[in-house]
Amino acid sequence: MLEISNLTTHYFQGGQVATAVRGVSLTLNKGLATAIVGESGSGKSTVAMSVMRMIRPPIGDIAEGTIRVNGTDVTAASPKRMREILRTSIGFVPQDPTTALDPLYTIRSQIVEAMPHVERNKRTETIVELLTSLGIADARDRLREHPHQFSGGMRQRVAIAIALAKEPDLLIADEPTTALDVTTQIGILRLLDRLRRERHLTTMFITHDIRVARLVCQDVAVMYGGVVVESGPLSAVVEAPSHPYTQALLDASSLDVGPRQRLRAISGSPPTLLSMPSGCPFAPRCPNATDICRSEMPATTRKADGSSFACWNPVAS
Amino acid sequence: MSSALESAPSSPAAGRPPRPWLRLRRRPGRRPWFSGTVMAIFAFCGLFGSVVAPHDPDKVNLSQALKPPVFAGGTPTYLLGTDQLGRDVLSRLLTGAQVSFLVAAGAVLIGGAIGLLVALLAGYSGGRLDAVLTRVADASMAFPVVLLAIVIVAIYGKGVTVVIAVLVVAAWPQYARVLRSEVIRIRTQEFVTMSRVMGGGRFWAITRHVVPNTIPTLLVLATLQIGLAIIAEGSLSFLGIGVPPPAASWGNMLADGRNFLATAWWLPVVPGVALSLTVLAANLFGDWLRQALDPATRR
């Protein structure tokens, strides 16, 4: 469904070139949800923005690699063709629903904008159906309301409705629950999971929280410093992580920390875009790091359980 | 903002569905009685002032000079009295309104349009073009308006068009500077990104999202500028580089009348009151309009 191979994306910052994504290869299987997990600055959002070709000069550019959406290479698509793909095939759920809707327009007119293919007299019905299925009560009465009359969770549902109105093949959700409170988060996560099952929607789920990923995703790609350090079926990766970073991430978010026990944080801080180490990006913080880690990028190793990792000194399982 | 509505019953069973555009009318206190009336009268006089004027505003009649207004012991023939040449003050006020209206509308519309255009160009391009446009705006703001007016009048002569041109040159940087920062703020909002992610082009994002969201700010600026434009026209006429006599304008009525403040107070007071009322009403009306157009404060 979505095949990213050897993607490298640069940002241009005041005359300098910052490499946010370095040689990422990733395949999203049809009808499955893939989590892209990483800290801020790991390049996870940049991958998503690259897929939608939102990174163009003067902000940045895709330097290398191909991205195939339904077989079409979007890195080679003309701007016109790209807009066509965005209009019909890719739905995007933003991080912050409070600014995702234009305050000046009614809910109806903002959803209609995303469904030009539906016949005029069927639009209201389709929208009401869509909103109702997303858990908005009294959808018909609320069509003429403005975004400020909706709560955060409701706005996120409207944003999801906009993403789904075009009946996309690929749904990209960029930390869709980060800006919401915990009770609302669960609702939105369940909703995304249900939509994926009902509509066979391939989902790219960007998050920094591996526990959230476990609720809705089947596959995972763990990113660090612009590189995919470990990827594969989520259950396999979680049960037997091979990369020390994945291990540390799981430790840090584990729930079996009792009272008066220290939380297991990862020491140090992630590399900045302009000071990427030449070898493995995690080497400066890695407990297993050796000389080769600091000088050479490890190759990707496949494991029997279907997952793969990029590390010189993997965690012994 | 949203909690008030959500706690209120919104199902059809509990009553009528909420209709935001009706809420406006349900709150009589919010209606712009004063400013709306004054603005309507101003607009009417601006368009038809010379038609409704009871006398020829330029007709000199020295035998009727300096008659006081009817409420100060004058005759009903000249409701607001006459000036030192026996011209009817009411008629001059009404025809003068046309000049003020034309100048205000011209300066605000043209200045606002240029300002918005420059703001979009600067705010969207960034980089060198942004820097150049911002510097040009700064430079024109630093240039004294009166000096500019004298130069333009020296080259092109006096007239309403010249007054409008001077005011446009003076006003566009004000719009451009404020709107530029608005454009930058709005275009980084997520809904603009969303519109591009949805496959909309840049032009679509600008016309559908960016420009409409600058309207509230533009309105506030414009109503302030209406007042400033009317006053500026007055100042230019006062200095003798505005609308040339014998044509009446509020500005030159004020300028001519100032010599008679001790003997015929109505000559400066009548155009002065009209000017102040209009400027006040323009500001109040703009304030109301901004709130009425904003979905979040409409209820």
In short:
The complex is a heterodimer of chains A (317) and B (299). Chain A has helices at residues 44-51, 79-88, 97-100, 107-112, 123-133, 139-142, 152-165, 182-199, 210-216, 234-239, 244-252, 291-295; strands at 2-13, 16-28, 33-37, 60-69, 72-73, 90-93, 170-174, 202-207, 219-224, 227-233, 300-302, 308-310.
Overall residue-averaged pLDDT value of chain B: 84
What form of chain B results from the Cα inertia axes? elongated
- What Rg of chain A is obtained from the alpha carbons, in whole angstroms? 20 Å
* Structure classification of chain B: mainly alpha
Determine the most extensive contact between two protein chains. Answer: A-B, 37 and 33 residues
- Number of DSSP-assigned strands of chain A: 12
How would a crystallographer describe the biggest sheet of chain B? none
Here the CATH topology of chain B equals MetI-like fold
Separation, N- and C-terminal Cα atoms of chain A? 32 Å
Secondary structure elements and pairings:
The complex is a heterodimer of chains A (about 325) and B (about 300).
Chain A: E1 2-13, E2 16-28, E3 33-37, H1 44-51, E4 60-69, E5 72-73, H2 79-88, E6 90-93, H3 97-100, H4 107-112, H5 123-133, H6 139-142, H7 152-165, E7 170-174, H8 182-199, E8 202-207, H9 210-216, E9 219-224, E10 227-233, H10 234-239, H11 244-252, H12 291-295, E11 300-302, E12 308-310
Parallel strand pairs in A: 3-8, 3-9, 6-7, 7-8
Antiparallel strand pairs in A: 1-2, 1-4, 4-5, 9-10, 10-12, 11-12
Chain B: H1 2-7, H2 20-26, H3 33-52, H4 89-125, H5 127-142, H6 145-156, H7 160-187, H8 190-197, H9 202-238, H10 250-257, H11 266-293
Helix pairs in contact in B: 3-4, 3-11, 4-5, 4-7, 4-9, 5-7, 6-7, 7-9, 8-9, 9-10, 9-11, 10-11
Give a verbal description of the structure.
Chain A is α/β, with parallel strands linked by helices. Chain A has a single domain, classed as P-loop containing nucleotide triphosphate hydrolases (Rossmann fold), CATH 3.40.50.300. Helices cover 32% and strands 24% of the residues of chain A. Chain A has twelve helices and twelve strands. An eight-stranded mixed beta sheet of chain A has the order 6-7-8-3-9-10-12-11, with helices on both faces. A four-stranded antiparallel beta sheet of chain A has the order 2-1-4-5. In chain A, strand 4 and strand 5 form a beta hairpin. The model of chain A has no long low-confidence stretch (mean pLDDT 90). Chain B is elongated, with a radius of gyration of 24 Å. In chain B, helix 4 packs antiparallel against helix 9 and helix 6 crosses helix 7. Chain B has 299 residues and is mostly helical. Chain B has a single domain, classed as MetI-like fold. Chain B has eleven helices and no strands. Chains A and B meet through helix 2 and helix 7 of A and helix 1, helix 8 and helix 9 of B.
